[in-house]
Amino acid sequence: MMDSPDPIxxxxxxxxxxxxxxxxxxxxxxxxxxxxxxxxxxxxxxEELMDAILYLERLKREVEKQKI
Length: 68
Prior knowledge:
- By secondary structure, the protein is mainly alpha-helical.
- It has two domains: 1-34; 36-68.
- 75% of the residues lie in helices and 0% in strands.
- The chain contains two helices and no strands.
- The model has no long low-confidence stretch (mean pLDDT 95).
């Protein structure tokens, strides 16, 4: 595992590793071994990014409320 002097980078790397273990337990294979069609990868990514936009909008509204 990469050892960065930046604690933020270390925290993110740890999360990636934990997510990888969870994915292996759930799907029984690495992403590298997953041969699903390219369109499925694109659709999965779109769904993940749509969720991220929703999360950001929710957080943005929370921050705006705190300013009032």
